[in-house]
Amino acid sequence: MTGTVGADQRPVRGLQPVPGPQPMPVAPESQPVLGPLTAAAIFLVVSVKAGGEPTVRDLLPDVAALARSVGSRVPEGGLTCVAGIGSDVWDRLFGGPRPAELHPFLELAGAKYTAIATPGDLLFHIRARHMDLCFELATQIMDRLSGWVAIDDEVHGFRYFDERDLLGFVDGTENPGGRAAVAAVLVGEDDPAFASGSYVIVQKYLHDIRAWGTLPDEEQERVIGRTKLSNIELPDGVKPANSHVALNTITGADGAQRQIVRFNMAFGSAGRGEFGTYFIGYSATPSVTEQMLMNMFIGNPPDNYDRILDYSTAVSGGLFFAPPAGFLANLPDPPAHGMAGARGEARARQAASQDQADGVATATPSAGGSLRIGGLKGKANHAS
Ligand code: HEM
Fold first, then answer.
1. Residue 252: what are its φ and ψ, rounded to 5°?
2. Where are the domains of the chain?
3. Are 325 and 29 in contact (CB under 8 A)?
4. Maximum Cα–Cα distance for the chain, whole Å?
5. What is the pLDDT along the chain (384 residues), one digit of tens a residue?
6. CA of 171 to the centre of ligand 1 (A)
């Protein structure tokens, strides 16, 4: 008899079955974090009032279905929504483990400019080809939350010519794509309970468009680090060390580039003379975006800050975690210890974040309880 396994798959004594092809491990499904830059987006940031937790828990599992219901009315509209959850509200909503790196936005105070932290428990990042779809979904979401949240910010973003920001430069070119984008953005198996989730940092910037307009194009190019019309990166010898691109091209200890995926949008009000960029960056670990913010606001080396800040002021800052789709569909139980305990835990975690931040810069709690990193405070946050 030869050493084979019978057709009926009964093992022959002394021989082991030959293993067949193993199924490939399938990563959990993410929320619709990745995708093309869209023509329209709404960024909605809200704080959950005391007692509003059950309402939020009711809504979260329905966000995907709401997006499907609204989106199916214009199938080619590509409507998507990502829900992000902030650090403090996390413990008010859920018992059980937390995403390993979820913490409040770290306020960064450089010698001249500050990346401020502002209130916000939930972020809804709504994208589509048409604003009517975004608006309808935002309305449906707000209808469900009505009375239980305070609106911290609502920005309606639009695509400006050729994917340009309102400074006139093409924005989003160096976003990674394909597998590199997935690796940059989605949490991996090192935090298995939250694999395929994503950390998201948002900042609303207002531009001093008048001052910017006084710069000749060649000087604007030296601020950004790319040519304006043709969107080509300036060569290394020409690109200044304090240009936006130079300070946001960062590498890890292994020499590999550390990347995020950005879906910035232009917004504004002609009547009020408001010209802005809503920055939104997704990453597998918030430390990548935080390193970029350190470079921009503190400077690298210190005081070599990003020249874009001479023309753009950050007026908001928030950090959220966008859990994987399965987490939202099947929420863990609410916390057993109630809200008072959750608040105490959140305070303890904030203190821990501060200790962590102390490792890279001095940090003191600001009046609002957020962190101010850099130790050089009290300076104007406006373009001079
Ligand atoms: C006023 C707000 C901002 C504006 C107008 C802006 C605009 C731009 C533009 C025009 C580019 C070059 C084209 C591109 O690759 O996208 C760029 C690149 C980039 N920006 Fe920003 N940005 C802003 C804020 C930020 C912030 C807050 C971060 C991160 C914390 C950031 C991270 C990056 C990165 C990683 C790149 C690509 C660098 C490279 O690899 O070449 N940006 N940005």
1. -85, -175
2. 40-373
3. yes
4. 90
5. 333 333 333 333 444 555 666 767 778 999 999 988 999 999 999 999 999 999 999 999 999 999 999 999 999 999 999 999 999 999 999 999 999 999 999 999 999 999 999 999 999 999 999 999 999 999 999 999 999 999 999 999 999 999 999 999 999 999 999 999 999 999 999 999 999 999 999 999 999 999 999 999 999 999 999 999 999 999 999 999 999 999 999 999 999 999 999 999 999 999 999 999 999 999 999 999 999 999 999 999 999 999 999 999 999 999 999 999 999 999 999 998 765 455 555 555 555 554 544 444 433 333 333 334 443 232 333 322
6. 7
Among left, alpha and beta (phi > 0; psi -120 to 50; other), residue 216 is beta
Question: Angle at CA 287, nearest 5°, toward 279 and 263?
Answer: 25
Q: How many whole angstroms from 371 Cα to the centroid of ligand 1? A: 24
Instruction: For the beta carbon of residue 255, count every other beta carbon within 10 angstroms.
Output: 6
Question: Which residue's CA is the closest to the ligand 1 atom numbered 6?
Answer: 171
* Exposed/middle/buried for residue 366 (C-beta within 10 Å: 0-12, 13-18, 19+): middle
Q: Is 190 an annotated catalytic residue?
A: no
Q: 19 is written with which tokens?
A: 């293993």
- Length of the chain, please? 384
| Binding pocket residue ranges, ligand 1, CB within 6 Å | 165, 167, 169-174, 203, 205, 224, 226, 244-245, 248-249, 260, 262, 277, 279, 281, 289, 292-293, 308, 312
For the record, the structure tokens of 375 come out as: 């130790």
Scanning the chain, the segments in alpha helix (DSSP H) are 53-59, 63-71, 87-93, 131-145, 178-185, 209-213, 217-224, 244-248, 286-297, 325-329, 338-358
Q: How far is CA 241 from the centre of its chain?
A: 25
Phi and psi at residue 154, to the nearest 5°:
-140, 115
**What is this structure's pTM?**
0.87
3-state helix, strand, coil split of the chain in percent (to 5) is 30, 25, 45
- Residue whose token pair is 């490939």: 24
Which ligand 1 atom is nearest residue 292's CA?
30
